[in-house]
Amino acid sequence: MKRIAIDMDDVIADAAGRFIEYAQLRLGKTIAPVDLHNRTWAEVAGVQPEIVRAWLFEEGFFRGMKVIADSQEVIKKLSEKYEIFIVSAATEFPNSLKEKLEWLNEHFPFISWTHTVFCGHKYMIQTDYLIDDHEKNLIRFPGKPILFTAGHNMHLDQYTRVNNWKEAEKMFLS
Amino acid sequence: MKRIAIDMDDVIADAAGRFIEYAQLRLGKTIAPVDLHNRTWAEVAGVQPEIVRAWLFEEGFFRGMKVIADSQEVIKKLSEKYEIFIVSAATEFPNSLKEKLEWLNEHFPFISWTHTVFCGHKYMIQTDYLIDDHEKNLIRFPGKPILFTAGHNMHLDQYTRVNNWKEAEKMFLS
């Protein structure tokens, strides 16, 4: 059975949407998803990077993320043909770890803790595919890297790209 | 640079010693390390497995573990010649995750979050070596498995074994 590693933030968990909520709540700034294209969160919010970065260390930031459209149904289908690992670069954010486990248990109950990986780098993960929104994770990945479209990666053109989970379903199941 | 994955519990963190402390404190039972040879914690404590297992889900259980002798100095030396990853099967225990990060920051400050991995299975970790006390982790590991002696694994004879960190130093650095 081939293995697929799947990232969390901005791939199955709507991190950008959570940033938009926080920007509204904390800074009173209304941001649209399209505003995030090829710009950092701090640039879009018009604040110092430390302000936005501090949100990532707060309790509740990760736990409250919405689920990315179609990810549940498609990954459930994928899990019948592939061995699925959720691989999240989470060890930078100590509060995120338990929240991410709880979030997965709630939204992806068919993913076991045995197949959940919290790490820093991902280049030592031995799977056939990695679906991720960050070039830093894809660039050294030894298997086949798949770029999942997010506002911040619109400029990248050297990776196989899926724009959403329906496209991923087509790629892996047809 | 070759990569070594190193387990935490009973390899760098004294899990057995922590169990002995809890058995004294909670059950009033005095247990010696030698009592643990080839027996489960529950057998040694003479209680139902659920009693002992519940301790692993308690706050503080992992955070309070002592450091295994010589592990700090030897892993520091190893880290000059090898790329070291700490790889702990921790996602089964939600409270352990933050505690394990804090524990590593305190006792192994030279190990970055980039090289810390919390997972379930370990067979998808691509390193040249895995130093671990559990056969379940070593048996499917694709690199070279190294068994680190612990009370519960004394009966295993099909793995290259190191009894302590001085022996690991000799194996990897001489």
From TrEMBL, chains A, B:
The active site is at 7 (nucleophile), 9 (proton donor). It holds the Pfam family NT5C. Gene3D superfamilies: Deoxyribonucleotidase, domain 2, HAD superfamily/HAD-like. InterPro entries: 5'(3')-deoxyribonucleotidase, HAD-like_sf, HAD_sf. One of its GO terms (biological process) is pyrimidine deoxyribonucleotide catabolic process. One of its GO terms (molecular function) is 5'-nucleotidase activity. It comes from the Bacteria. Transmembrane segments: none annotated. Belongs to the 5'(3')-deoxyribonucleotidase family. This is 5'(3')-deoxyribonucleotidase. It comes from Xanthocytophaga flava.
